[in-house]
What we know:
Number of helices: 11
Order of helices and strands: HHEHHEEEEHEHEEHHHHHE
Helix content: 40-55%
Shape: globular
Amino acid sequence: MRFNAQVAAEADSLREMSAALELMAASAEDVNGDVTFGDKLREQASEGRRRAEHIDRDVSKQRKQFKVVIVLPVMPCLEKNPAKNENMRNIVYWQQASLFRGKNSLMKRLQAEFPGEDLDEYIGLYNLKHWGRRPADQVPVCETVYVHSKVMIVDDRVAILGSANINDRSLAGDHDSELAVVCSPPEHLSDSGSLARQRSLESVKRGVCQTTIAGQPWEASVFAQQLRIRLWAEHLGLADMCGHVEATVPPGVTEMLTDPIECYNSIWFPTAAKNTIAFDTMFPQFPSDDQRTYKQVNQASELKVQDNPVFLHEIKGYIARMPLRYLESETLYNKRFMVPDEVFT
Length: 345
């Protein structure tokens, strides 16, 4: 992999953040009953070190090139506390049951199919958050970005944009009416990416371009690739107000954005890991892996924002990791719920 030095530097940065969290934990005071702020900081420090080790493994192994990146809302509606709202609990249940909770979820079925594999090497679940300062008192505030678009981009060749959700209501064919557009080059693309350089102008005219995936030659759709680059640049804090890559972005970073595997390994994953630590530390009220019970959710809702410029400065863009342990100790589903399951599935 190119840019190994930069990736290693990101891992070192995560370790430095973890060390800083350990120092903060040493002087932290207890808050709200048995929830200790210092213990939470130590957990975040441990998570930072784990993600640094994950990056190190990715740099050293380099043999696994298959990546699935899923961006979705952290919760359907943050205004409602699932600890107090039964409707919200059922919605959260179905979202988690589809992705990672229960034997029929995507992640559990893959674990059964490929025992011993680290699925983090292949699949990443993410959400978007945004922070700023209140004009009146400059107190930091945070909000989640509700991802409502339905977009799939595959190998920078095919893009699907539509209205359908990934559930029976949209896809079974006998429920909601949906519309989707498939955008792909007008003719078959060879896997070898073998168009000669002298035909590059012709390639552009027919909507394809010569690029790389995982450092290997690849023939991509101009539209699909540019759509992904603009979305990723925005999520990673590398885009200007018009959605284009900032002119101040170093050429090496711009080059990495064109290769989805290299961009994920070198920029996306490290950025999301650092952002998650910073968001969870500074804004503990939001869903996180620390909140595994209703009691912890309620206690976190009472915590104050931690205004630490050092950690806020570390936040780049909007991307953060999905909290996969959120409410894992609770039984979310209520079979007596009046709304039928078909509404959610």
